Request: fold
Amino acid sequence: MDGSVWVGLAGTVIGGGLSIWASVVAQKRQTKATRDLRIEEKAEAAVEEAITQLYVIKQRARDLPQDNSGFGAWDQDLAQLAVQMEPTVLRIRNKDLRERIEEVLGYMGMTHELTDYPVFGGSLMLPWAVCSYGLECLGAAVRGEPLPAPTEPIRKARAIDAHVREQRAIAREETER
Reply:
């Protein structure tokens, strides 16, 4: 064989190898893009599901008991609905949004306190207003807008939460003495 045949053969082998390598790289990129798209679709679906679930919680928060005997069941319902929503919230990719919704859900576990501290802004409608804030955050995320600033109801809930934690810490210290 003369040199031109060897050069042609080497060129063919190198070209074929590069073609196979390029195909493998393109396939890996396509697989990653498909996987990323699926993850993003699941995250978007989680936000949409969270909107639906938080809306249900908000409606239940608005359905105040007519008398004090129904308050315990109402309180437990809100807490249970919040717990049921937690797996959905774990799929939300945006960390700031996830933390805000977790905060809102945490307050649904302390509706008794939110309604029982008028000095700090507590009222029967505070759990409902806190849920409204959560829905505002979820809606902004769906629309691709920045998350809203904390509203007055969420600031009131934070103040009540801080007060309750402080009271519990004082009580723990007293029992330890």
